[in-house]
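Sample pair:
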Amino acid sequence: MSKPKTDTQGVQKPKKTIGKHLSLFIDRFEVTILAASTAFLAILLIINVIARNMAKSIYFAEEISKLFIILITFTGTSYAARKARHIRMGALLELLPPKVEKVLVIIISIISALVMFTLAYHAFNYMNNLRVRGTKTEALGAPYWYFLIVAPVMLFTAGIQFARTVLKNFKEKEVWLSPEQQSEFEDEVTMMENVMAETDVDKLELKEIK
């Protein structure tokens, strides 16, 4: 008797759809935090400078600025790991054969993932110690560990992104610098391709002839 065939494609499609929606959600979440934190930090600092020159500086401006800097730093770490924007010897890797480059990217990603998970562990312990001690900020009197919640979360997320890079390179033949991008300039290349696709080349050529 022949074994019934299983519809593997039907199972894989929902997984891919969930993965795309999850990746899109994470991207929008991180970009929103980065954009909002940068904008609010700039506005707060400008208002504080004006207030300092006119009367008196805002007493809680320094603490809120620290919060925004922490948000930008650790959210940017996760975003850089996912979009291949972290610092690395890109020029050196591109000179190597693809197989050697792939092996080095896997090794670097494994080490980076371990470092991120270790930092996330220590960041969580530090945050938890502040919570147990009841440490509060001087100006606002808010629990200081509130300001540090983002640190272990985003460091752990960055570790996951590096782990995803390792899995991506094992699954695909090409070299992937991150789980979502093959090249550091993939976004720029895609943008230029879209611009060229929307441009009417024939009209441009006629204008040049005239």
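The two ends are 74 Å apart (CA to CA).
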